[in-house]
Amino acid sequence: MADKLIIFDTTLRDGEQSPGASMTKDEKIRIAKQLERMKVDVIEAGFAAASPGDFESIKAIASIIKDSTVCSLSRANDRDIARAAEALQAAQRKRIHTFIATSPLHMEKKLRMTPDQVLEQAIQAVRYARNFTDDVEFSPEDGSRSDMDFLCRVLEAVIKEGATTINFADTVGYAVPELYGNMLKSLRERIPNSDKAVWSVHCHNDLGMAVANSLAGVMIGGARQIECTINGLGERAGNTALEEIVMAVRTRKDYFDLQLGIDISQIVPASKLVSQITGFAVQPNKAVVGANAFAHASGIHQDGILKARDTYEIMRAEDVGWSANKLVLGKLSGRNAFKQRLEELGIALESETEVNAAFARFKELADRKSDIFDEDILALVSDEEHAHNNDAFHYVSLSQRSETGELPYAKVVFTADGKEVTCEGNGNGPVDAIVNAIDSKVQSGAELLLFSVNAITTGTQSQGEVTMRLSKAGRIVNGVGADPDIVVASAKAYLSALNKLQSKTEKLNPQI
Ligand code: KIV
Ligand code: ZN
Protein backbone atom coordinates (compact mmCIF):
# COMPACT_ATOMS: atom_id res chain seq x y z
CA MET A 1 0.00 0.00 0.00
CA ALA A 2 1.41 3.39 -1.03
CA ASP A 3 2.10 5.96 1.69
CA LYS A 4 -0.36 8.80 2.15
CA LEU A 5 0.89 12.30 1.34
CA ILE A 6 -0.76 14.82 3.66
CA ILE A 7 -1.77 18.09 2.00
CA PHE A 8 -1.56 20.96 4.46
CA ASP A 9 -3.02 24.14 3.01
CA THR A 10 -1.82 27.45 4.41
CA THR A 11 -3.56 29.85 2.00
CA LEU A 12 -5.43 31.43 4.91
CA ARG A 13 -2.28 31.95 6.98
CA ASP A 14 0.97 32.12 4.99
CA GLY A 15 -0.93 33.02 1.80
CA GLU A 16 -2.62 35.90 3.57
CA GLN A 17 0.78 37.29 4.57
CA SER A 18 1.17 38.39 0.97
CA PRO A 19 0.85 42.22 0.91
CA GLY A 20 -2.70 43.15 -0.04
CA ALA A 21 -4.07 39.61 0.30
CA SER A 22 -5.81 40.15 3.63
CA MET A 23 -9.26 38.58 3.76
CA THR A 24 -12.36 39.15 5.82
CA LYS A 25 -13.80 36.47 8.09
CA ASP A 26 -16.56 35.65 5.60
CA GLU A 27 -14.07 35.39 2.76
CA LYS A 28 -11.90 33.05 4.82
CA ILE A 29 -14.90 30.88 5.63
CA ARG A 30 -15.75 30.60 1.94
CA ILE A 31 -12.20 29.53 1.13
CA ALA A 32 -12.08 27.09 4.05
CA LYS A 33 -15.28 25.44 2.83
CA GLN A 34 -13.83 25.13 -0.65
CA LEU A 35 -10.66 23.57 0.80
CA GLU A 36 -12.79 21.08 2.71
CA ARG A 37 -14.74 20.31 -0.46
CA MET A 38 -11.40 19.68 -2.15
CA LYS A 39 -10.61 17.32 0.76
CA VAL A 40 -7.38 18.92 1.93
CA ASP A 41 -6.14 17.12 5.03
CA VAL A 42 -5.16 20.14 7.14
CA ILE A 43 -6.34 23.75 6.83
CA GLU A 44 -4.10 26.29 8.55
CA ALA A 45 -6.84 28.83 9.22
CA GLY A 46 -4.65 31.63 10.55
CA PHE A 47 -2.46 32.84 13.38
CA ALA A 48 -4.82 33.30 16.32
CA ALA A 49 -2.65 35.73 18.29
CA ALA A 50 -2.07 38.00 15.27
CA SER A 51 -5.26 40.03 15.68
CA PRO A 52 -8.82 39.73 17.01
CA GLY A 53 -9.92 39.31 13.37
CA ASP A 54 -7.63 36.31 12.87
CA PHE A 55 -8.83 34.80 16.14
CA GLU A 56 -12.52 35.15 15.16
CA SER A 57 -11.89 33.71 11.70
CA ILE A 58 -10.16 30.62 13.10
CA LYS A 59 -12.91 30.20 15.67
CA ALA A 60 -15.61 30.36 12.99
CA ILE A 61 -13.75 27.97 10.68
CA ALA A 62 -13.13 25.55 13.56
CA SER A 63 -16.85 25.35 14.23
CA ILE A 64 -17.85 24.91 10.57
CA ILE A 65 -15.23 22.56 9.12
CA LYS A 66 -15.87 18.91 9.90
CA ASP A 67 -13.71 16.79 7.61
CA SER A 68 -10.35 18.56 7.54
CA THR A 69 -8.10 19.18 10.54
CA VAL A 70 -8.13 22.88 11.44
CA CYS A 71 -4.83 24.37 12.54
CA SER A 72 -3.65 27.65 14.04
CA LEU A 73 -0.11 28.93 13.95
CA SER A 74 1.45 30.21 17.17
CA ARG A 75 4.85 31.44 18.16
CA ALA A 76 6.60 29.36 20.78
CA ASN A 77 5.13 31.08 23.83
CA ASP A 78 2.28 30.28 26.22
CA ARG A 79 0.17 33.28 25.31
CA ASP A 80 0.10 32.51 21.58
CA ILE A 81 -0.48 28.82 22.19
CA ALA A 82 -3.37 29.43 24.62
CA ARG A 83 -4.92 31.81 22.10
CA ALA A 84 -4.61 29.20 19.34
CA ALA A 85 -6.16 26.56 21.60
CA GLU A 86 -9.05 28.87 22.47
CA ALA A 87 -9.76 29.66 18.82
CA LEU A 88 -9.67 25.95 17.93
CA GLN A 89 -11.88 24.81 20.81
CA ALA A 90 -14.87 23.82 18.66
CA ALA A 91 -12.85 21.95 16.00
CA GLN A 92 -13.56 18.27 15.49
CA ARG A 93 -9.89 17.80 14.61
CA LYS A 94 -7.46 20.45 15.75
CA ARG A 95 -3.76 21.08 15.40
CA ILE A 96 -1.53 23.64 17.07
CA HIS A 97 1.45 24.61 14.94
CA THR A 98 4.20 26.25 16.94
CA PHE A 99 7.53 27.51 15.66
CA ILE A 100 10.74 29.25 16.58
CA ALA A 101 13.71 30.25 14.45
CA THR A 102 16.77 28.00 14.63
CA SER A 103 19.28 29.54 12.20
CA PRO A 104 22.29 31.36 13.70
CA LEU A 105 21.26 34.53 11.86
CA HIS A 106 17.67 34.56 13.15
CA MET A 107 18.61 33.52 16.68
CA GLU A 108 21.31 36.15 17.03
CA LYS A 109 19.89 39.10 15.10
CA LYS A 110 16.12 38.66 15.33
CA LEU A 111 15.42 36.75 18.53
CA ARG A 112 18.57 37.83 20.38
CA MET A 113 18.59 34.46 22.07
CA THR A 114 21.26 31.85 22.57
CA PRO A 115 20.80 28.41 20.99
CA ASP A 116 20.20 26.93 24.47
CA GLN A 117 17.44 29.43 25.13
CA VAL A 118 15.81 28.61 21.79
CA LEU A 119 16.03 24.89 22.56
CA GLU A 120 14.39 25.43 25.95
CA GLN A 121 11.62 27.61 24.50
CA ALA A 122 10.86 25.04 21.78
CA ILE A 123 10.58 22.29 24.41
CA GLN A 124 8.32 24.39 26.65
CA ALA A 125 6.11 25.37 23.74
CA VAL A 126 5.48 21.82 22.56
CA ARG A 127 4.94 20.63 26.15
CA TYR A 128 2.39 23.38 26.73
CA ALA A 129 0.62 22.84 23.38
CA ARG A 130 0.17 19.14 24.19
CA ASN A 131 -2.14 20.17 27.05
CA PHE A 132 -4.69 21.22 24.43
CA THR A 133 -4.35 18.62 21.68
CA ASP A 134 -2.44 15.48 20.73
CA ASP A 135 -1.82 16.95 17.29
CA VAL A 136 1.12 19.36 17.64
CA GLU A 137 3.32 20.50 14.80
CA PHE A 138 6.70 22.12 15.35
CA SER A 139 8.62 24.15 12.76
CA PRO A 140 12.23 25.24 13.01
CA GLU A 141 11.90 28.57 11.21
CA ASP A 142 14.69 29.19 8.68
CA GLY A 143 15.45 25.49 9.09
CA SER A 144 17.26 25.20 5.78
CA ARG A 145 19.89 27.72 6.95
CA SER A 146 20.27 26.16 10.41
CA ASP A 147 23.18 24.18 11.78
CA MET A 148 22.47 20.46 11.41
CA ASP A 149 23.82 19.46 14.84
CA PHE A 150 21.67 22.08 16.52
CA LEU A 151 18.60 21.08 14.48
CA CYS A 152 19.11 17.46 15.57
CA ARG A 153 19.16 18.54 19.24
CA VAL A 154 16.03 20.68 18.93
CA LEU A 155 14.00 18.27 16.85
CA GLU A 156 14.83 15.22 18.94
CA ALA A 157 13.80 17.17 22.05
CA VAL A 158 10.48 18.41 20.66
CA ILE A 159 9.56 14.94 19.40
CA LYS A 160 10.27 13.65 22.91
CA GLU A 161 7.84 16.30 24.21
CA GLY A 162 5.15 15.00 21.87
CA ALA A 163 5.41 16.96 18.61
CA THR A 164 3.67 14.73 16.06
CA THR A 165 4.70 16.63 12.92
CA ILE A 166 8.07 18.23 12.22
CA ASN A 167 7.96 20.83 9.49
CA PHE A 168 11.32 21.62 7.92
CA ALA A 169 10.91 25.25 6.83
CA ASP A 170 12.76 26.87 3.95
CA THR A 171 11.54 30.26 5.14
CA VAL A 172 13.45 32.43 2.70
CA GLY A 173 13.36 30.16 -0.35
CA TYR A 174 17.12 29.53 -0.19
CA ALA A 175 17.10 25.77 -0.66
CA VAL A 176 17.92 23.80 -3.80
CA PRO A 177 16.16 20.48 -4.34
CA GLU A 178 18.92 17.91 -3.89
CA LEU A 179 20.52 19.65 -0.91
CA TYR A 180 17.18 20.27 0.80
CA GLY A 181 16.09 16.66 0.29
CA ASN A 182 19.41 15.41 1.64
CA MET A 183 19.25 17.66 4.70
CA LEU A 184 15.88 16.20 5.55
CA LYS A 185 17.12 12.67 4.92
CA SER A 186 20.08 13.25 7.19
CA LEU A 187 17.88 14.70 9.97
CA ARG A 188 15.61 11.67 9.84
CA GLU A 189 18.59 9.31 9.90
CA ARG A 190 20.41 11.08 12.73
CA ILE A 191 17.50 11.77 15.09
CA PRO A 192 16.86 8.59 17.08
CA ASN A 193 13.11 9.16 17.59
CA SER A 194 12.46 10.58 14.09
CA ASP A 195 10.03 7.74 13.32
CA LYS A 196 7.66 9.08 16.01
CA ALA A 197 6.75 12.12 13.86
CA VAL A 198 5.45 12.82 10.38
CA TRP A 199 7.99 14.94 8.48
CA SER A 200 6.77 17.89 6.54
CA VAL A 201 8.16 20.39 4.02
CA HIS A 202 7.37 24.11 3.85
CA CYS A 203 9.08 25.96 1.00
CA HIS A 204 9.01 29.52 -0.25
CA ASN A 205 9.43 30.32 -3.90
CA ASP A 206 12.08 33.08 -3.91
CA LEU A 207 14.24 31.20 -6.40
CA GLY A 208 11.29 29.60 -8.19
CA MET A 209 12.05 26.19 -6.66
CA ALA A 210 9.36 25.79 -3.97
CA VAL A 211 7.57 22.94 -5.75
CA ALA A 212 10.81 21.20 -6.75
CA ASN A 213 12.21 21.55 -3.22
CA SER A 214 9.02 20.20 -1.67
CA LEU A 215 9.02 17.18 -3.97
CA ALA A 216 12.71 16.54 -3.28
CA GLY A 217 11.86 16.70 0.42
CA VAL A 218 9.34 13.94 -0.22
CA MET A 219 11.38 11.73 -2.52
CA ILE A 220 14.86 12.14 -1.02
CA GLY A 221 14.00 13.24 2.49
CA GLY A 222 10.99 11.03 3.17
CA ALA A 223 8.57 13.85 4.04
CA ARG A 224 4.93 12.79 4.05
CA GLN A 225 3.31 16.21 4.43
CA ILE A 226 3.59 19.18 2.07
CA GLU A 227 2.59 22.67 3.11
CA CYS A 228 1.24 24.70 0.23
CA THR A 229 -1.19 27.38 -0.90
CA ILE A 230 -3.72 27.77 -3.68
CA ASN A 231 -2.12 29.49 -6.71
CA GLY A 232 1.17 29.54 -4.75
CA LEU A 233 -0.12 32.63 -2.94
CA GLY A 234 2.22 33.97 -0.28
CA GLU A 235 4.72 36.58 0.82
CA ARG A 236 7.31 37.76 -1.73
CA ALA A 237 7.41 35.11 -4.48
CA GLY A 238 4.87 32.96 -2.66
CA ASN A 239 4.65 29.42 -1.31
CA THR A 240 4.57 25.98 -2.87
CA ALA A 241 1.55 25.82 -5.20
CA LEU A 242 -0.96 23.18 -4.07
CA GLU A 243 -2.29 22.53 -7.57
CA GLU A 244 1.20 21.86 -8.96
CA ILE A 245 2.09 19.46 -6.15
CA VAL A 246 -1.16 17.55 -6.39
CA MET A 247 -1.08 17.22 -10.17
CA ALA A 248 2.62 16.29 -10.24
CA VAL A 249 2.15 13.53 -7.68
CA ARG A 250 -0.98 12.28 -9.40
CA THR A 251 0.20 12.51 -13.01
CA ARG A 252 3.57 10.91 -12.18
CA LYS A 253 2.22 8.24 -9.85
CA ASP A 254 4.63 5.87 -11.58
CA TYR A 255 7.46 7.82 -9.94
CA PHE A 256 6.04 9.23 -6.69
CA ASP A 257 3.86 6.25 -5.77
CA LEU A 258 1.95 8.15 -3.09
CA GLN A 259 -1.72 8.34 -2.18
CA LEU A 260 -3.58 11.63 -2.13
CA GLY A 261 -6.99 12.36 -0.69
CA ILE A 262 -7.62 15.44 -2.87
CA ASP A 263 -10.69 15.81 -5.10
CA ILE A 264 -8.92 17.33 -8.10
CA SER A 265 -12.16 18.51 -9.74
CA GLN A 266 -12.21 21.25 -7.09
CA ILE A 267 -8.79 22.67 -8.01
CA VAL A 268 -9.85 25.25 -10.60
CA PRO A 269 -12.88 26.43 -8.57
CA ALA A 270 -10.53 26.88 -5.57
CA SER A 271 -8.04 28.79 -7.69
CA LYS A 272 -10.74 31.11 -9.06
CA LEU A 273 -12.19 31.71 -5.62
CA VAL A 274 -8.84 32.64 -4.07
CA SER A 275 -7.94 34.86 -7.00
CA GLN A 276 -11.30 36.60 -6.93
CA ILE A 277 -11.25 37.18 -3.16
CA THR A 278 -7.65 38.37 -2.93
CA GLY A 279 -7.51 40.24 -6.23
CA PHE A 280 -4.33 38.34 -7.17
CA ALA A 281 -4.86 37.37 -10.79
CA VAL A 282 -3.47 34.04 -11.97
CA GLN A 283 -0.90 34.41 -14.73
CA PRO A 284 -2.17 32.82 -18.00
CA ASN A 285 0.78 30.44 -18.30
CA LYS A 286 0.55 29.23 -14.68
CA ALA A 287 0.65 25.41 -14.53
CA VAL A 288 -2.73 23.69 -14.07
CA VAL A 289 -4.81 26.78 -13.19
CA GLY A 290 -3.62 29.40 -15.73
CA ALA A 291 -6.05 30.27 -18.51
CA ASN A 292 -3.59 28.93 -21.10
CA ALA A 293 -2.54 25.83 -19.17
CA PHE A 294 -4.49 23.60 -21.54
CA ALA A 295 -4.62 25.82 -24.64
CA HIS A 296 -2.93 24.42 -27.73
CA ALA A 297 -2.25 27.14 -30.26
CA SER A 298 0.30 25.71 -32.66
CA GLY A 299 -1.04 23.85 -35.68
CA ILE A 300 1.18 20.83 -35.08
CA HIS A 301 -0.04 20.46 -31.50
CA GLN A 302 -3.69 20.94 -32.47
CA ASP A 303 -3.34 18.31 -35.17
CA GLY A 304 -1.74 15.90 -32.69
CA ILE A 305 -4.44 16.52 -30.08
CA LEU A 306 -7.19 15.85 -32.61
CA LYS A 307 -5.58 12.53 -33.53
CA ALA A 308 -4.85 11.43 -29.99
CA ARG A 309 -5.17 13.66 -26.92
CA ASP A 310 -2.21 12.18 -25.12
CA THR A 311 0.19 13.28 -27.88
CA TYR A 312 0.43 16.65 -26.17
CA GLU A 313 -1.76 16.39 -23.05
CA ILE A 314 -0.55 14.82 -19.82
CA MET A 315 -3.59 15.95 -17.81
CA ARG A 316 -7.20 16.63 -18.76
CA ALA A 317 -8.55 20.13 -18.23
CA GLU A 318 -11.96 18.82 -17.20
CA ASP A 319 -10.43 16.60 -14.50
CA VAL A 320 -9.12 19.64 -12.60
CA GLY A 321 -12.41 21.51 -12.90
CA TRP A 322 -11.98 23.60 -16.04
CA SER A 323 -15.47 22.68 -17.17
CA ALA A 324 -16.81 24.89 -14.36
CA ASN A 325 -17.09 27.78 -16.81
CA LYS A 326 -20.51 26.65 -17.98
CA LEU A 327 -23.78 28.38 -18.49
CA VAL A 328 -25.89 27.86 -15.42
CA LEU A 329 -28.64 30.44 -15.21
CA GLY A 330 -30.37 33.14 -17.23
CA LYS A 331 -32.97 35.85 -17.06
CA LEU A 332 -35.85 33.41 -16.66
CA SER A 333 -34.28 31.38 -13.86
CA GLY A 334 -36.25 31.50 -10.65
CA ARG A 335 -35.24 32.03 -7.03
CA ASN A 336 -35.18 28.28 -6.30
CA ALA A 337 -32.83 27.54 -9.19
CA PHE A 338 -30.59 30.40 -8.04
CA LYS A 339 -30.60 29.17 -4.44
CA GLN A 340 -29.85 25.62 -5.53
CA ARG A 341 -26.88 26.82 -7.62
CA LEU A 342 -25.57 28.75 -4.60
CA GLU A 343 -25.74 25.55 -2.58
CA GLU A 344 -23.98 23.57 -5.32
CA LEU A 345 -21.22 26.17 -5.29
CA GLY A 346 -20.94 25.77 -1.51
CA ILE A 347 -22.21 29.27 -0.79
CA ALA A 348 -24.45 29.41 2.26
CA LEU A 349 -25.92 32.87 2.72
CA GLU A 350 -26.88 33.41 6.31
CA SER A 351 -30.53 34.39 6.00
CA GLU A 352 -33.41 34.38 3.55
CA THR A 353 -33.08 38.18 3.44
CA GLU A 354 -29.53 37.77 2.13
CA VAL A 355 -30.67 35.21 -0.45
CA ASN A 356 -33.39 37.64 -1.55
CA ALA A 357 -30.90 40.50 -1.87
CA ALA A 358 -28.46 38.32 -3.84
CA PHE A 359 -31.32 37.13 -6.05
CA ALA A 360 -32.33 40.75 -6.73
CA ARG A 361 -28.75 41.48 -7.82
CA PHE A 362 -28.78 38.35 -9.96
CA LYS A 363 -31.94 39.58 -11.72
CA GLU A 364 -30.37 43.01 -12.30
CA LEU A 365 -27.31 41.34 -13.79
CA ALA A 366 -29.41 38.96 -15.91
CA ASP A 367 -31.16 41.97 -17.39
CA ARG A 368 -27.83 43.29 -18.63
CA LYS A 369 -26.10 40.01 -19.45
CA SER A 370 -27.96 37.09 -20.98
CA ASP A 371 -25.74 34.23 -19.80
CA ILE A 372 -24.85 33.95 -16.13
CA PHE A 373 -21.91 31.66 -15.30
CA ASP A 374 -20.68 30.28 -11.98
CA GLU A 375 -17.95 32.93 -11.95
CA ASP A 376 -20.61 35.66 -12.22
CA ILE A 377 -22.43 34.19 -9.23
CA LEU A 378 -19.22 34.09 -7.18
CA ALA A 379 -18.56 37.77 -7.97
CA LEU A 380 -22.13 38.69 -7.18
CA VAL A 381 -22.00 36.97 -3.80
CA SER A 382 -18.78 38.79 -2.95
CA ASP A 383 -20.52 42.08 -3.71
CA GLU A 384 -23.43 41.00 -1.57
CA GLU A 385 -21.16 40.17 1.36
CA HIS A 386 -19.58 43.59 1.12
CA ALA A 387 -23.00 45.20 1.10
CA HIS A 388 -23.85 43.45 4.37
CA ASN A 389 -20.70 43.84 6.36
CA ASN A 390 -19.62 46.86 8.32
CA ASP A 391 -17.91 48.59 5.42
CA ALA A 392 -18.06 52.38 5.50
CA PHE A 393 -18.48 52.91 1.74
CA HIS A 394 -20.96 51.37 -0.66
CA TYR A 395 -21.32 52.05 -4.36
CA VAL A 396 -24.72 53.36 -5.52
CA SER A 397 -24.46 54.64 -9.10
CA LEU A 398 -22.35 56.64 -11.52
CA SER A 399 -22.45 58.51 -14.77
CA GLN A 400 -19.39 59.10 -16.82
CA ARG A 401 -18.48 60.88 -20.03
CA SER A 402 -15.41 60.62 -22.21
CA GLU A 403 -14.99 61.79 -25.76
CA THR A 404 -11.96 62.34 -27.99
CA GLY A 405 -10.55 65.80 -27.27
CA GLU A 406 -12.59 66.22 -24.03
CA LEU A 407 -11.39 65.83 -20.46
CA PRO A 408 -13.13 62.71 -19.07
CA TYR A 409 -15.72 63.45 -16.38
CA ALA A 410 -17.38 61.25 -13.72
CA LYS A 411 -20.18 61.72 -11.22
CA VAL A 412 -20.28 59.03 -8.54
CA VAL A 413 -22.93 58.38 -5.90
CA PHE A 414 -21.95 56.26 -2.93
CA THR A 415 -22.88 55.92 0.72
CA ALA A 416 -20.47 56.76 3.52
CA ASP A 417 -21.61 55.36 6.87
CA GLY A 418 -25.13 55.16 5.54
CA LYS A 419 -25.33 58.72 4.17
CA GLU A 420 -25.56 59.28 0.43
CA VAL A 421 -22.71 61.29 -1.07
CA THR A 422 -22.56 62.68 -4.61
CA CYS A 423 -19.25 63.76 -6.06
CA GLU A 424 -17.82 64.83 -9.38
CA GLY A 425 -14.35 64.83 -10.87
CA ASN A 426 -12.24 64.99 -14.00
CA GLY A 427 -9.20 62.98 -14.91
CA ASN A 428 -6.97 61.97 -17.77
CA GLY A 429 -9.14 58.88 -18.27
CA PRO A 430 -12.48 57.56 -16.96
CA VAL A 431 -10.89 55.66 -14.08
CA ASP A 432 -8.79 58.64 -13.05
CA ALA A 433 -11.96 60.78 -13.13
CA ILE A 434 -13.77 58.32 -10.82
CA VAL A 435 -10.88 58.15 -8.37
CA ASN A 436 -10.59 61.96 -8.33
CA ALA A 437 -14.35 62.30 -7.81
CA ILE A 438 -14.39 59.90 -4.85
CA ASP A 439 -11.20 61.37 -3.40
CA SER A 440 -12.70 64.86 -3.50
CA LYS A 441 -14.93 63.63 -0.64
CA VAL A 442 -12.88 60.89 1.00
CA GLN A 443 -9.39 62.40 0.78
CA SER A 444 -7.86 58.97 1.16
CA GLY A 445 -4.23 60.03 0.72
CA ALA A 446 -3.59 56.54 -0.69
CA GLU A 447 -1.30 55.70 -3.56
CA LEU A 448 -2.58 53.43 -6.34
CA LEU A 449 0.00 50.68 -6.81
CA LEU A 450 -1.81 48.44 -9.22
CA PHE A 451 -4.85 48.52 -11.48
CA SER A 452 -5.89 45.46 -13.43
CA VAL A 453 -8.97 44.34 -15.35
CA ASN A 454 -9.82 40.75 -16.16
CA ALA A 455 -12.80 39.31 -17.96
CA ILE A 456 -14.50 36.91 -15.52
CA THR A 457 -15.70 34.63 -18.30
CA THR A 458 -15.36 34.56 -22.08
CA GLY A 459 -17.01 36.85 -24.64
CA THR A 460 -17.44 40.61 -24.81
CA GLN A 461 -20.55 40.33 -22.62
CA SER A 462 -18.38 39.14 -19.76
CA GLN A 463 -18.23 41.05 -16.50
CA GLY A 464 -14.97 42.85 -15.97
CA GLU A 465 -13.28 42.22 -12.64
CA VAL A 466 -11.13 45.13 -11.56
CA THR A 467 -8.45 44.94 -8.87
CA MET A 468 -7.01 48.08 -7.33
CA ARG A 469 -4.10 47.87 -4.93
CA LEU A 470 -3.67 50.87 -2.64
CA SER A 471 -0.91 51.72 -0.25
CA LYS A 472 -1.03 54.11 2.68
CA ALA A 473 1.31 54.49 5.63
CA GLY A 474 2.94 51.13 4.98
CA ARG A 475 -0.34 49.21 4.63
CA ILE A 476 -1.19 47.59 1.31
CA VAL A 477 -4.72 46.49 0.45
CA ASN A 478 -6.47 45.06 -2.61
CA GLY A 479 -10.00 46.05 -3.58
CA VAL A 480 -11.98 44.03 -6.10
CA GLY A 481 -15.13 45.01 -8.02
CA ALA A 482 -17.06 43.30 -10.81
CA ASP A 483 -19.57 44.62 -13.31
CA PRO A 484 -20.31 44.29 -17.04
CA ASP A 485 -19.29 47.98 -17.20
CA ILE A 486 -15.58 48.14 -16.31
CA VAL A 487 -15.85 51.78 -15.27
CA VAL A 488 -18.47 50.81 -12.66
CA ALA A 489 -16.28 47.82 -11.69
CA SER A 490 -13.42 50.31 -11.13
CA ALA A 491 -15.53 52.48 -8.83
CA LYS A 492 -16.57 49.39 -6.84
CA ALA A 493 -12.95 48.21 -6.63
CA TYR A 494 -11.76 51.62 -5.43
CA LEU A 495 -14.44 51.81 -2.73
CA SER A 496 -13.70 48.24 -1.67
CA ALA A 497 -9.98 49.09 -1.29
CA LEU A 498 -10.86 52.23 0.70
CA ASN A 499 -13.02 50.09 3.01
CA LYS A 500 -10.08 47.80 3.65
CA LEU A 501 -7.80 50.75 4.32
CA GLN A 502 -10.32 52.10 6.82
CA SER A 503 -10.65 48.87 8.78
CA LYS A 504 -8.17 49.07 11.61
CA THR A 505 -7.00 45.49 11.45
CA GLU A 506 -3.53 45.77 12.89
CA LYS A 507 -1.96 42.37 12.56
CA LEU A 508 1.20 40.90 13.93
CA ASN A 509 3.39 39.16 11.42
CA PRO A 510 4.14 35.72 12.89
CA GLN A 511 7.81 35.96 11.97
CA ILE A 512 8.31 39.14 14.01
O1 KIV B 1 8.10 30.22 6.31
C1 KIV B 1 8.07 29.88 7.50
O2 KIV B 1 9.08 29.64 8.16
C2 KIV B 1 6.78 29.79 8.14
C3 KIV B 1 6.76 29.13 9.45
C4 KIV B 1 5.92 29.86 10.42
C5 KIV B 1 6.41 27.69 9.31
O3 KIV B 1 5.79 30.15 7.55
ZN1 ZN C 1 6.18 30.28 5.38
Which descriptors apply to this entry?
about 500 residues; TIM Barrel; eight-stranded parallel barrel; 18 strands; about 20% strand; globular; binds 3-methyl-2-oxobutanoic acid; binds zinc ion
Topology record:
Elements: E1 3-4, E2 6-9, H1 25-37, E3 42-47, H2 52-64, E4 69-75, H3 78-87, E5 94-101, H4 104-111, H5 115-129, E6 136-141, H6 148-160, E7 165-170, H7 177-190, E8 198-203, H8 210-219, E9 225-228, H9 242-251, H10 253-256, E10 258-259, H11 267-278, H12 299-307, E11 327-329, H13 335-344, H14 352-368, E12 372-373, H15 374-388, E13 393-401, E14 409-416, E15 419-426, H16 430-442, E16 447-455, E17 464-472, E18 475-483, H17 486-502
Helix pairs in contact: 1-2, 1-11, 2-3, 3-5, 5-6, 7-8, 11-15, 14-15, 16-17
Residues 14, 171, 202, 204 line the site of zinc ion.
Number of domains: 4
CATH class of the largest domain: Alpha Beta
Instruction: Give the full name of the CATH homologous superfamily of the largest domain.
Output: Aldolase class I
Strand order of the largest sheet: 2-3-4-5-6-7-8-9
Oligomer: single chain
Unreliable stretches: none
Organism: Undibacterium umbellatum
Binding site for Mn(2+): 14, 202, 204, 239
Subunit structure: Homodimer.
Family: Belongs to the alpha-IPM synthase/homocitrate synthase family. LeuA type 1 subfamily.
